[in-house]
Amino acid sequence: MNLSTPVEEIPRIGPQYQKRLKKMGIKTVGNLFFHFPHRYEDFSNIIPISEAETGGPFCFQGKILEIKNIRTWKRRMTLTQAVIGDSSGALKVIWFNQPYLINTFKKGDSVCLAGKITSKGSARYLSNPSYEKILSPATFFKNGEEQELTHTGRLIPVYPETEGLSSKWLRFIVKPLLAKLKNEISDPLPEKIRERHKLLPIQKAIWQIHFPDSLKLAKTARERFAFEEIFTISLLVLRERMKLAKEKAMAVPLKLNFVKEFTDNLPFKLTNDQKKSAWQILKDLEKPRPMNRLLEGDVGSGKTIVAAIAALNTAKTDCQVAFMVPTEILAKQHSNTLNELFEKFNLNIGLITGKESQLNSEKISRKELLEKVKNGEIDILIGTHALIQNHKSSTPSSVKKGVLEIKFKNLD
User: Fold this and answer.
1) DSSP state letter for 159
2) What are the structural domains, with CATH classification, of the chain?
3) Between the CA of residue 404 and those of 6, 255, 344, 387, 409, what are the distances in Å?
4) Nearest alpha-carbon partner for 325 in 283, 358, 353, 297
5) CA-to-CA dists, residue 334 to 39, 271, 359, 396, 406, angstroms
């Protein structure tokens, strides 16, 4: 068995559980190991029964002194009532609507129970606790030989769940598999990288994220996997950049006279960040390789004006610009803005969305607009995803010399 082993081959996982796991995207042992908890229940506070008080959660170890089911007809539910005892005293326990527990526990069984103490008048009881059988009674919390607990007596992982697939069942399956296979998991992070950033090796991290010895170790493990994810993405981006650097693209020379005329006639002054971003984009466009930049900024920070400068410079070098935005409302707003900003520059600005098409703010048929795109008569085409859809007439990507595609990412 290894990380690629399908869930169908894992012992104790029947057909119904296989379906539930696949519903959550868990198809292999590896998927199961990397289905991380989203929080933890702290059941590590193991105390003698004599120290029990209202609240909690607390954890108790002892023997089942008695257990029975009671049917409450008024509330139409079954109560499983038990009494647990250790050398210091006894405590009443109640489970709600879990009648099968009468067959799970027998008088004299040693158990570990974890939950909150509830008071009703002068009576106190442990309400609906988590449970598991143990080998020996309550000397565990003092100097007795420890038993490895899974569902009580420690920090308990709580996983993302689906109907019929509980965190308890996942702990029951994951723990023995992880104990057996964790040392076979290869670490994708180089040792030097781990040492430099003080990261746990993957074998320890994956155990501590599922069954942590402390919340601090759980946090450390989660930070390691977060670092790994960002590190992997960074490598992929770097690889794509290296590939992109080898690609050839038409150089777009800087038309400084048009850019200066445009910025000088704006009703406001550009900020230093806007000037810097625009200049870097324009200089990148001069190179004979594809430009690939992500312009980030809050709403109102001036991304549109930076894009407008790049679009103007590109259009004035006899190329076409595809200006894509996420919504039709935004496409219409940008169309109005660019038509106003570029009024003096003799540009043909098209708008294409799922509902309408325009040329220089005048309505035009989609077929006619696309034909003009094909013939190179449109300098800037603004639109939604309709820009990249296939059209019977032509597609906006059929251009005269080249395309500058402008996208935005808002930081709201």
Assistant:
1) -
2) 7-41+157-184 (no CATH), 45-152 (2.40.50.140), 191-245 (no CATH), 256-410 (3.40.50.300)
3) 46, 15, 21, 13, 17
4) 353
5) 44, 20, 13, 18, 12
In whole angstroms, how large is the CA radius of gyration of the chain? 33
Q: DSSP secondary structure string, 34-83?
A: T---SEEEE---B--GGG--SEEEEEEEEEEEEEEEEEETTTTEEEEEEE
> Rounded to whole angstroms, what are the CA distances from 74 to 81, 125, 127?
17, 21, 20
285: nearest Cα among 314, 312, 319, 263: 314
When mean pLDDT is compared across 5-14, 135-144, 300-309, the lowest value belongs to 135-144
Residue entry with tokens 């009468």: 102
Residue 152, Cα to own-chain centre: how many angstroms? 29
| Closest C-alpha to 10, from 27, 25, 24 | 27
Q: What is the pLDDT of residues 184-210, one digit of tens each?
A: 999 999 999 999 999 999 999 999 999
The pTM of the full predicted model, rounded to 2 decimals, is 0.67
Q: How far apart are CA 177 and CA 200, in angstroms?
A: 20
The residue assigned the tokens 């650097």 is 245
- Among 399, 333, 386, CA closest to 357: 386
pLDDT at 290 (0 to 100): 84
